[in-house]
Write a structure and sequence with these properties.
With 458 residues, the chain is α+β, with helices and mostly antiparallel strands. It contains eleven helices and 23 strands. The strands form five sheets. It has a nine-stranded mixed sheet. Strands 22-16-17-15-14-13-12-23 form an eight-stranded mixed sheet. Strands 10-11 form a two-stranded antiparallel sheet. Strand 19 and strand 20 form a beta hairpin. It holds the Pfam family Pkinase.
């Protein structure tokens, strides 16, 4: 139903996904004054949210179910509610204002008055997302797995594609990692370990990506891993090992606060991630950074002896700790890999502020040798603070027993004040029922009764 959208060539679903990512806007204050705010659509699609750069200053939430008027005029978007609240937002362009109007128009009550440049949008009351499209392709033609409509690709991992999906059950967007030919591709055995999958589904922390479902297709030896959709994607693409534009030191500090808090939670649960890198740090609409991708994780409370312990080095070569490198010069690894997470986080910190990995070479095995033997050197540019350099040095000590502990990182002077948890950490507990229900069966539905194998369907 493209006629519902107030933008030519863009559907309502296209606009809604944009709203989840958020944007900067000027929020109207008293006496014709404005202040810059970050605005975003809540993941439950029920709220318009905003916050200031300054912590604790004008953070707000507007319930979309109470909206009675929604109007776009030039660059300004105005929202009024039944309880007398009125929010005025000025976007960067008129097109952006109309994008927000279009996305919100089908999320507010049908009786609300919605206008664009004084033109009433009547068609919105007949809006049906199943008759809409995403990126030019009708939703009705998309394939389903269980309750999830696979809208289209948003990325690619080491073992498969990542799809954006819409749940017909809770009406939320999710990211679905589709992994094919598990045995052939040598995918980690943890994928079929019900205890480990039960643990992942129990993880509950604001800086850990939530795991919703794991579905297995025995006929195709494939898995679908359904996780929280992180609308703003990776904090930094680290596929290139050098020559990347660095992030600001202040911006990296805020990222690190979130990651340290999330890693502290994982270690408290006796889980080592073992693949910390910028590509596995994702940002949601409100800017919160979360740790993702647990394919290399070790869960020490689940299995005392890891069947993968003698496999190839885990993680990504440029960010891997010396004790996990495949090298004759590698130091002895401790029984548990918590120190390796500190190294990988330090290497990620180095990458984000300098735009390159701390140790470079032409081949993977040369990188391993460099990590184990080369002295850490800081580039001349960009200039960073002495406190940051001190933190990186302590995190990138080659001998794991001498490396900074996570609590040392959390209270380092570079942060100003200790990285704090929002709530007291609690140990998770899994029941026999959690384990039994950890992995479901994938049931594919092909529109129009077309037949296809799993590879075609993704």
């Amino acid at each position: 139903m493209h006629d519902v959208s107030a933008l030519a060539g863009r559907s309502v679903l296209d606009c809604v996904v944009d709203l989840l990512r958020g944007t900067r806007a000027q929020k109207r204050k008293m006496l014709r004054r404005y202040g810059e705010r970050w605005i975003w659509l809540g993941e439950d699609l029920l709220s318009l949210n905003w916050k200031s750069k300054k912590r604790g200053v004008d953070q707000g939430r507007l319930n979309l179910t109470k909206v009675k008027k929604l109007r776009s005029q030039d660059r300004e978007l105005t929202v009024e509610t039944n309880d007398g609240r009125k929010v005025g937002l000025v976007l960067a362009t008129k097109e952006e204002s109309v994008t927000w109007l279009t996305g919100l128009s089908c999320l507010v009550p049908k009786k609300a008055k919605v206008t664009e440049s004084n033109k009433l949008l009547k068609e919105r009351i007949r809006y049906d997302p199943l008759r809409d499209s995403w990126r030019g392709r009708a939703v009705s033609t998309r394939k389903h797995v269980n309750e999830y409509i696979m809208l289209g690709g948003i990325g690619r991992g080491s073992f498969g594609k990542v799809k954006l999906a819409l749940s017909t059950a809770d009406k939320r967007f999710y990211a679905v990692k589709v992994i094919l030919n598990v045995k052939k591709n040598g995918v980690s055995e943890s994928m079929s370990n019900r205890e480990e999958q039960a643990v992942l589904r129990k993880l509950d922390h604001p800086n850990i990506v939530r795991h919703k479902d794991v579905l297995f297709d025995p006929d195709r030896d494939g898995y679908c891993v359904i996780v929280e959709y992180m609308a703003r994607g990776v904090v930094m693409d680290s596929s290139k090992l050098e020559g990347v534009k660095p992030l600001s030191e202040d911006g990296v500090r805020e990222i690190m606060r979130d990651v340290v808090a999330g890693l502290e939670y994982l270690h408290y649960q006796r889980i080592a991630h073992r693949d910390i890198k910028p590509d596995n740090l994702l940002r949601c609409g409100d800017g919160t950074v979360k740790i993702s991708d647990f394919g290399e994780a070790r869960m020490y409370d689940v299995s005392a002896e890891d069947p993968r312990a003698k496999a190839a080095a885990p993680g990504t070569p440029a960010f891997i700790a010396p004790e996990l490198c495949v090298s004759e010069r590698s130091p002895k690894a401790p029984p548990e890999s918590y120190a390796a997470d500190i190294w990988s986080l330090g290497a990620s910190l180095f990458y984000m502020v300098y735009g390159r990995a701390p140790f470079l070479a032409k081949s993977v095995f040369e990188i391993y040798d460099c990590i184990c033997t080369q002295q850490l050197r800081f580039p001349d540019q960009p200039k960073v603070s002495r406190k940051l350099k001190d933190l990186i040095k302590k995190m990138l000590i080659k001998e794991p027993k001498n490396r900074a502990k996570l609590q040392d990182v959390a209270k380092h002077a570079w942060f100003g004040e200790r990285v704090a948890q929002r709530e007291e950490l609690k140990k998770i507990r899994i029941t026999p029922a959690d384990v039994e229900n950890a992995i479901g069966k994938a049931s594919w539905k092909i529109p129009n009764d077309r037949t296809s194998d799993l590879a075609d369907s993704v």
